[in-house]
């Protein structure tokens, strides 16, 4: 078995794997400063973005859940991989061949299980695509596609393929490529046949490859074509089973194609099927995605929010497309259950005749699909009207029952102003003409908010306005400068004694840097900024302290201009001024306890020192003001 990966290869892969590029395959990032990017954390649910990436240091850190590290750490956490598996994935992406101590390379050794399964799925996708244009029985697949207006170019754009008739065409291909039967079953590409051998999972089906946000094929969705005589052919639509790659609750078909336009337009259109996604994209609605054989759920909300970078600004929109029938109403109510998880606005686009986007595109072309999305109505309104439609509004009893059914929905609206307006709308729709009565009814039904607890920030905790004192902010800023700008800040920072830092964690980091020889020579010693940060992090003996160093390396410096000598001088002078102020306070207390006559010598010495410190403080303050 191959040994550990050579350090030089680990460094090369890191160098050729810009962290912003890798993270952007999973998280929508927006600029937050000169070197900083921000997005919604993929590791925990949050309303406002607290996940930061620093391009210069090559690190990420979430100031909400404290996850952080380099590009290897991100890939390990996001996909649950070992270091070796993460290195193999990144090396493949970067085009680097890893060499192992003791012999062997990634070209000759067995790759990780995940990489093996991804490769098998890539080959399977190519196989299915080839069968669509070469297998005689694929005619049924072409009939299905052309009847819906899709041509060869559209099929290639979305990777549509054909799973042939027979039993084991794909299985034999993959076994010939030296994949094991266990791998094919684990990946959901094959299954045990009734006679004991391996057979293909998909037969005589039109196939859509399902990709993750990085563009890797992780599963398939298959639509059964006209009966081919095979008994027990299965359901009309069949997806890959749950596998180490395919987690349908976290996947959205078409997301890898839509993600850039989602970020640009601040819009996600959620449709119900693979052909609906195709029709929308071909019609110009390139923000369309679909669930993969399951209802839209909480984990899908997280994916959509990260794609939108959904924040409290409420400028984005999520548009669900449903039929206007009872099934569509039911789907809308399921979607409304998750509405409060979004910070952005949610809408419903309904086709009155009950046509799905693909059928609408076939009949009305591109314009009809775009108009469907343009005619969207707020999800809350759609859900409310659906509830009211179940009651007889011609009677007082019916209107009151409808109010009691609709009031909890209005009560769940997060925004107080919007909640009030919908209470007014509800009064008008029901015809009570008594806004106070309806508002009171809504208030009665409204769920009581759960009692919250005040957040307490520790020295290692997230940055939160008002949770740390000004002294700690100044100390933290000096540490950030030493970590992110060692060449610029080092000469002054290295003159600061550890006791000038009052927060224990801050003092510990200052001592770490001192033990490494100081910040001023850090870049030269380590061989670059990323290596310098890694050196400081490695010097920390506790995991919590290492995470704190990562946070310092990622967090934005509190400067509204490019960091320069003036800003460094201002911050370092401020640290010294605060230290001198504390000494003055202590010395004043001491002077007050001395008797000027009985303790004349000690009094005069302390008083002289006090005068000198006051003068030094004025000089430091003038330097700080001048730098500012």
The assigned CATH architecture of the largest domain is Orthogonal Bundle
What CATH calls the topology of the largest domain is: DNAb Helicase, Chain A
- Rg value: 31 Å
| Weakly predicted, low-confidence segments | 447-467
Distance between the termini: 59 Å
Short structural description:
With 628 residues, this protein is an alpha+beta fold.
Please describe what this structure looks like.
- The chain is an alpha+beta fold and 628 residues long.
- It folds into five domains: 88 residues, DNA Primase, Chain A (Alpha-Beta Complex), CATH 3.90.580.10; 134 residues, DNA primase, catalytic core, N-terminal domain (DNA primase DNAg catalytic core, N-terminal domain, Alpha-Beta Complex); 137 residues, Dna Topoisomerase Vi A Subunit, Chain: A, domain 2 (3-Layer(aba) Sandwich); 50 residues, no CATH class; 158 residues, DNAb Helicase, Chain A, CATH 1.10.860.
- It contains 26 helices and 17 strands.
- The protein has a six-stranded mixed beta sheet, sandwiched between helices. It has a five-stranded antiparallel beta sheet with strand order 1-2-3-4-5. The chain has a four-stranded antiparallel beta sheet with strand order 6-9-10-11, with helices on one face.
- Helix 19 packs across helix 25 and helix 20 packs parallel to helix 25.
- The longest helix is centred in the last third of the chain and has 29 residues.
- It is flat, with a radius of gyration of 31 Å.
- About 3% of the residues have low confidence.
Show the helix and strand layout:
Layout: H1 7-15, H2 19-23, E1 30-31, E2 36-39, E3 51-54, E4 59-62, E5 68-69, H3 71-79, H4 83-94, H5 113-134, H6 139-147, H7 152-157, E6 161-163, H8 169-176, H9 181-186, E7 190-192, E8 198-200, E9 205-211, E10 217-224, E11 237-239, E12 252-253, H10 255-265, E13 267-271, H11 274-283, E14 288-291, H12 298-308, E15 317-323, H13 326-336, E16 345-351, H14 357-374, E17 377-378, H15 379-388, H16 396-411, H17 416-430, H18 435-445, H19 470-484, H20 486-493, H21 504-515, H22 522-526, H23 529-539, H24 543-554, H25 565-593, H26 600-627
Parallel strand pairs: 13-14, 13-15, 15-16
Antiparallel strand pairs: 1-2, 2-3, 3-4, 4-5, 6-9, 7-8, 9-10, 10-11, 12-14, 16-17
